[in-house]
């Protein structure tokens, strides 16, 4: 089972780089948003510094959503799931591994960029470490919650729109907790409460995600 799990992760990571641009598309979208929004607000460095944390979290959420739209769709259309079901891995674990592959291939890259972009926008250097940790937790939550939306929208004609409607409300808490954590660090307050909420949400998504995705995939494949 362990060998099959690693094989699936390697396969999905490889396909994400060769089919549809995967990480490159999300990174490009992220950088485009980060360039356009400050341009629309003007060159006032004080304003950019105040909104840097919240802005990067918003862009992280939207870029993560973009990369998850076709998480299961291609394998569903190509009947790959029918083959995977014959193997040793249950659907819940298959779905979890596909989300982790997406996170490793896209979410981690976006997370590494987040503190750098914050500092470029004028946020203090003190935000870098906590910004990186919180971005890792947030992007993992986005991947798992987005996976639930992708599995529920599987087979729908307008799956991308349906997925966005299903997922975006559940992206709000990590954005609030993450931006609040950055604000706490910036003002000298304790960030532990916001970090605890962000970690708890990631664990909640990790616990709920595989079960919900497995049930949705089973329904779509039946």
From TrEMBL:
Keywords, sorted A to Z: Cell inner membrane, Cell membrane, Cytochrome c-type biogenesis, Membrane, Transmembrane, Transmembrane helix, Transport
GO CC entries: plasma membrane
Subcellular localization, as worded in the UniProt entry: Cell inner membrane
One BP term from GO: cytochrome c biosynthetic process
Superkingdom, natural source: Bacteria
Gene Ontology terms for molecular function: heme transmembrane transporter activity
Membrane topology annotation: Multi-pass membrane protein
Key word Signal present: no
Residue ranges crossing the lipid bilayer per the database entry: 21-41, 47-68, 103-123, 129-154, 161-182, 194-217
One family name in Pfam for this protein: CcmB
InterPro entries hit by this protein: Cyt_c_biogenesis_CcmB (IPR003544), Cyt_c_CcmB_bac (IPR026031)
Role summary: Required for the export of heme to the periplasm for the biogenesis of c-type cytochromes.
Family: Belongs to the CcmB/CycW/HelB family.
Name of this chain's protein: Heme exporter protein B
Organism expressing this protein natively: Asticcacaulis benevestitus DSM 16100 = ATCC BAA-896
Lineage: Bacteria, Pseudomonadati, Pseudomonadota, Alphaproteobacteria, Caulobacterales
């Amino acid at each position: 089972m362990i060998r099959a799990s690693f094989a699936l992760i390697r396969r999905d990571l490889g396909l994400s780089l060769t089919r549809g641009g995967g990480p490159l598309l999300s990174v490009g979208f992220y950088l485009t948003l980060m360039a356009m929004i400050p341009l629309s607000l003007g060159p006032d460095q004080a304003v950019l510094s105040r909104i840097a944390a919240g802005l990067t979290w918003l862009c992280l959420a939207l870029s993560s959503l973009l990369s998850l739209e076709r998480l299961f769709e291609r394998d569903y259309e190509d009947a790959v799931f029918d083959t995977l079901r014959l193997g040793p891995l249950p659907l819940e674990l298959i779905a979890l591994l596909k989300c982790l592959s997406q996170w490793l291939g896209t979410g981690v890259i976006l997370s590494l960029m987040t503190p750098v972009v914050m500092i470029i926008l004028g946020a203090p250097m003190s935000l870098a470490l906590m910004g990186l940790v919180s971005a890792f937790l947030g992007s993992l939550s986005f991947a798992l919650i987005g996976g639930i939306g992708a599995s529920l929208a599987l087979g729908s004609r307008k799956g991308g729109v349906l997925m966005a409607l299903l997922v975006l409300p559940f992206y709000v808490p990590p954005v609030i907790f993450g931006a609040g954590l950055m604000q706490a660090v910036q003002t000298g307050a304790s960030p532990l409460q916001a970090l605890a909420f962000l970690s708890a949400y990631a664990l909640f998504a990790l616990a709920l995600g595989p079960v919900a995705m497995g049930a949705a995939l089973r329904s779509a494949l039946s």
